[in-house]
From TrEMBL:
Family: Belongs to the 4-hydroxybenzoyl-CoA thioesterase family.
Keywords from the named record: Hydrolase
Protein name stated in the entry: Thioesterase family protein
Pfam families, per the entry: 4HBT_2
Length: 151
């Protein structure tokens, strides 16, 4: 049995630019950081921006959902995990989950991103190349992981 993949995790600090009028982390800062963590995972596994450019494919986001649990304020350290929540059999469509927590392990927010892979030449959805499928298959899955019906 292959080893269980580790949860991909990055740590950050709430910056001035992340703060909203009420003094806590703004909603778009969560979305920005979630996107950065997803792209960092791909980069760290050999899928750099140049590689995507060479392949002429890229991720496209259909929907982001944010659930908030606890405030995060200026200069607070927080951690962002990335796991696969759902994927189609051919990996052309996906749902990834970013979980935000503080140093005490308290849940701050969850961002669920639904997307697919786009052929940038044809401007149509596509099946990712086998090397990318292998990398996506290495991403730890959520406890409530689902297979997306269809391909």
């Amino acid at each position: 049995m292959p080893p269980t993949p580790q949860i991909y995790r990055r740590s950050y600090q709430v910056e001035w630019r992340d703060i909203d009028f009420n003094g806590h982390m703004r909603n778009t800062a969560y979305l920005d950081r979630a996107g950065h963590v997803r792209m960092s995972f791909l980069h760290d596994h050999g899928f750099t921006p140049r590689e995507f450019e060479r392949l002429r494919i890229g991720p496209v986001v259909f929907k982001d959902e944010i659930l908030y649990f606890k405030e995060s304020r200026m200069l607070a350290v927080y951690h962002v995990n990335l796991r696969m929540a759902a994927v189609s059999k051919d990996y052309s469509r996906f749902q990834m989950r970013n979980e935000f927590s503080n140093d005490e392990g308290e849940r701050l927010a969850v961002v669920v991103t639904t997307g697919a892979w786009m052929d940038l030449r044809a401007r149509k959805l596509t099946v990712p190349p086998s090397d990318l499928v292998k990398v996506l298959g290495q991403m730890q899955r959520t406890d409530d992981f689902l297979e997306i019906p269809g391909n």
